[in-house]
Amino acid sequence: MRLEPPVPVSREEYTVNVRDIEPLLQGYGMDMAPWPNATIKLRTGETMFIREAKVEEAKTLMQYVRRVMDSEHDFYDIVGARVYAELLGWYRKRLKDPYVMIGMIDGELAGLVNGRLMNEDINISHHTMTFKRGGRLGAALFYCKAYYAFEVLGQKEFWSTYESYNGWRIGFLGMAQPSYPWPDVQHELGGARVYYVTKKYWDRAIKDYSEQLVGSPLNFDVSDEIIEANKEIKLPDDVTV
């Protein structure tokens, strides 16, 4: 947009270095405690290792998520498209305070969760994706995300919304999550309804319920062998969703 200056000016054009623009577009991040390496025993008997994803691994994750976008059942196409955009936003530094955790089983990618911090008090859950059937992987990874918000970051609220019926059943219905008045309060994912968990509700009910749903608690005493075995991401050969 251009407007005529209201006074005479001695210089009509200025050159702006993109390095001066970038701080305005990128903003500055909060101090975020890292997710501590953890394992959890699944109902299949397998052990899943959950670690933070590194930003340089974003393209590897995007490579697989792009294949998931071709699945036109159970809303995997829209979830895949949105996760792809979120990973790209993370990689290109166009998301405020994002986090990405991945679940690995024997060195192979089994699922991922992501979200971001709105502020010091509110954690915005974006998506939970699983790439392996059985074992309640989705519930385990969602539990990790909420655990990160309350137990690691010390936040007051965890906000979710749901695009699929299964996610709604596990998250909202299973956890009996209350919601804020809609459309007064909207989730950033398409302006959908905000379902939330408070720290008090987490301590009184949800933490124990999540452990019961998954079948075992998180174990933060992770061996060097497990860490080394899952250091590199091996993508599944097939898309199983």
Structural write-up:
This protein is an alpha+beta fold. The protein has one domain: Aminopeptidase (3-Layer(aba) Sandwich), CATH 3.40.630. The protein contains 7 helices and 7 strands. It has a 7-stranded mixed beta sheet with strand order 1-2-3-4-5-6-7, with helices on both faces. β4 (108-117) and β5 form a beta hairpin.
Order of helices and strands: HEEHHEEEHEHEHH
Provide the low-confidence segments as ranges: none
Strand arrangement in the largest pleated sheet: 1-2-3-4-5-6-7
**Helix and strand composition category:** alpha+beta
Let me know the largest β-sheet: 7 strands, mixed
What's the alpha carbon Rg, rounded to whole Å?
Answer: 20 Å
Count of individual domains: 1
Termini Cα gap? 47 Å
**Number of helices, where a helix is a run of at least 4 consecutive DSSP H or I residues:** 7
What is the fourth-level CATH superfamily? Gcn5-related N-acetyltransferase (GNAT)
Strands, helices and their partners?
Elements: H1 18-26, E1 38-41, E2 47-52, H2 58-68, H3 76-91, E3 98-105, E4 108-117, E5 122-130, H4 137-152, E6 157-160, H5 165-175, E7 195-198, H6 199-214, H7 224-229
Parallel strand pairs: 5-6
Antiparallel strand pairs: 1-2, 2-3, 3-4, 4-5, 6-7
Helix pairs in contact: 2-3, 4-6
Brief descriptors of the model:
alpha+beta; 7 strands; seven-stranded mixed beta sheet; 241 residues; Aminopeptidase
Write a brief structural summary:
The chain is of the alpha+beta class and 241 residues long. The protein has helices at residues 18-26, 58-68, 76-91, 137-152, 165-175, 199-214, 224-229; strands at residues 38-41, 47-52, 98-105, 108-117, 122-130, 157-160, 195-198. The protein has 7 helices and 7 strands, in the order αββααβββαβαβαα.
